[in-house]
Structure formats: C-alpha cells, structure tokens
Amino acid sequence: MLGIMAALALAVALPFVVSGYRVFQFTMVLDYAIAVFGANILTGYNGQIALGNGAFYAIGAYTVAILMTHAGMPYWATIPIAAGTCFVAGFLFGLPALRLEGPYLALTTFALAVATPQLLKYHGIESWTGGVQGILFDKPDAPAGVPLNSDQFLYLFCLFVTVIMFVLGANLLRGRTGRAIIAIRDNPTAAAGMGIDTSLYKSLTFGVSALFTGVAGALGAIVTQFVSPDSFTLFLSISFIVGVVIGGVATVSGAFFGALFVEFVPNYADQISKAAPWAIYGALLIAFMYAMPTGVVGLLRLIVRRIDPQWAIRKDAGKQ
Predict the structure, then answer these.
(1) What angle do CA 198, 204, 205 make, to 5 degrees?
(2) Smallest Cα–Cα separation from 204: which of 91, 100, 96, 42?
(3) Strand, helix or coil at 61?
(4) 20/248 Cα distance (integer angstroms)
(5) Which alpha helices (DSSP H) does the chain contain, by range?
(6) Would you say 181 and 201 are in contact if contact means Cβ atoms under 8 Å apart?
(7) How far apart are CA 135 and CA 63, in angstroms?
(8) Which residue, 11, 156, 219, 315, has fewest beta-carbon neighbours within 10 Å?
(9) Could you give the CA distance from residue 253 to residue 196 in angstroms, rounded to a whole number?
(10) Lowest mean pLDDT among 152-161, 215-224, 282-291
(11) 162/27 Cα distance (integer angstroms)
C-alpha cells in the first residue's frame, strides 16, 4: 500500500516538473494503461485471445466525438456513455464468439479490427463520423479559477479516471466474478462442473474488456481533440496485446509498464533509425521478451524473491 501511495504522489507531481510535450506523452501512457488492462482482463485473466480491442477503442473515441460535436455534451459526461456503449457492443460480440476458441477467436477479432476503420468511412454515416476526414473538436480547458494549463488539467483528469478504473478492475478480479473468470481460463470443464455459467462469464468478460478499452478511447479522443478512421489501425489492437505481454500477463500493475512501452518505444525506434524504425521496434521487442519472458512484473517479482525469499509467503498470507 505504501508503494502505491508513493507512486500516486509521484504521478500527481509529474505534470509540474516535465515539459508540455512530456505531459501529453504521459497522459497517453495513462490512457493506454486502461486499454492494456482491459485487454489483460480478457486475454490474461480469462484466456480469450483477442486482437480486436482497437475496434472498441475507436467506438469509445467516436462516441465522445459525436456527443461533443453534435449533441454539445461536456467531455466528462460523454465518458460513462462511451463506457456503456462499448460494454454492450463487447457483450453482444462475445455471444457469437462463444463458439470460437484459440486461433479462431483471434482471427474473428482480427477481422473486427480490420473492418472497423472501413465502416467508419461509410458514406451513409458520414454526417456523423466525418468520413475519411474524421472529427475535430476543441480541447477542454481547466475550470475557471484552477491554476493549471490545459495539458496539466487533462493529465490530472486522466489520472483520476485511471485510478477509478484500476480500483474497479482490481476489485472485480479479486471478487467472486474474478475467481470465476480465472477458473474458466484454467479449466473450463471444471469451472462448469462447479456451477459457473461459462457462457455468461465469457460474454461478460468480453463486455468488461470492451468497457475499459472504450473508456481509454474516450480519453484518447479528448486528449488528442481529433478522431479519424485511419487512427485506429490494426497495429493499435496489436499494440495492446504487446503491452499485456511486456507488462506481464494476468497482472494489474503490468498495464502501466506495457503502456510505457506502447507510447515510448515506437518514438525511440524512430529516433534511432528514420529508415527502418519498425525493424528497431521489432528488435527491441525481441530483446524485451528474451530478457523478461514473464514481463516486467514477472522480472520484478523474481528480483524481490531473490532478495527476500519469504516475500511470496507473506503476500499469500495477506490475501487470506
């Protein structure tokens, strides 16, 4: 708990000690952390391999953009609507996906990620989505009397939402629902024999994962002040899975490490080589996986166990 409070204090102080561009980057780290956590709930905790979370990120972003520009809603009021919309979309998509597992489910969600940008360009809904041009809207300013610039305010707003989402997600995973989700991943047959409705929980997990990703998409749209179909490529969905693996599969705190990788590594790869940035990105990804096959959190746990062999015993005792 002390470590969490120290990390939170550091996060609150961050926008006052770095440049405006860095504030924007760390704001996007918070945004991606929510999306990576959502992907981890589905893939890491429930065992459903999905490559379509970028589609729900787009739905959340467009929900905010449409409500702000066409309905005149304040930015903060659009986030719960984006979350609800994505939950329903994810739950409904999860129903037919119940018949699919492993690579077949991955391929189906892959198709969803590929199709979504094209659907957003459809001329029949162009008056709402802006077609290929997308939607541009104003960045929210800090409330009157608050001595913050817009970048600092949006960072703190995103931090506030991130804390709420992670508290809700962690409590969900620690509770009865979380135990059912994990049991389905470990042994679906045994879970069904224990009375767990595997179909319902799989669909609910899809919905919860989409909800988290939709909230991330909503925040991303508010921060960047722009949405367009080409912003939600297949690589975005793959990046969320990369973040899950880099941070640590089936970990909560790993989402932040994964988000740091998603935000900063492509930029550093581009700085290293303008001619072949993705070759550098791939090499760095391979290096990370070779050095940390269980992710950053797995490596940190290994280091702590080497320093303090009784740490794992005390941690397990604290959960009881």
Answers:
(1) 90
(2) 91
(3) helix
(4) 30
(5) 2-13, 20-40, 53-70, 75-94, 102-120, 126-129, 150-174, 176-186, 188-193, 198-224, 234-247, 254-272, 277-291, 295-307, 311-319
(6) yes
(7) 11
(8) 315
(9) 27
(10) 282-291
(11) 10
Amino acid identity of 302? Answer: L
Question: What tokens appear for 136 in the block?
Answer: 């541009």
The residue-averaged pLDDT of 181-197 equals: 93
Encoded tokens for 103:
């690579």
Selection from 226, 246, 227 nearest residue 291 by Cα? 246
Spatial distance between the Cα atoms of 153 and 76, rounded to a whole number of angstroms: 13
Distance (Å, whole) CA 222 – CA 240: 19
Question: For residues 167 and 98, is the Cβ–Cβ distance under 8 A?
Answer: no
Q: In this structure, are residues 33 and 255 in contact, taking their beta carbons and an 8 Å threshold?
A: yes
- With beta carbons less than 8 A apart as the criterion, state whether 68 and 78 touch: yes
Identify any residues that bridge with 226 across adjacent strands, giving them in sequence order: 136
Average pLDDT, integer, range 281-292: 92
Query: DSSP secondary structure string, 171-224?
Result: HHHHSHHHHHHHHHHH-HHHHHHTT--HHHHHHHHHHHHHHHHHHHHHHHHHHH
Q: How far apart are CA 158 and CA 178, in angstroms?
A: 25
Q: Calculate the alpha carbon distances from 158 to 11, 200, 222 in Å.
A: 11, 31, 10
In Å, how far are 81, 151, 263, 314 from 76, measured between CA atoms?
10, 16, 24, 41
- Which is it for the CA torsion 47, 50, 55, 58, positive or negative? positive
Question: How many residues belong to the chain?
Answer: 320
List pLDDT tens digits, range 54-92: 999 999 999 999 999 999 999 999 999 999 999 999 999
Nearest-angstrom CA–CA distance, 204 and 33: 21
Closest CA to 212 of 153, 252, 265: 252
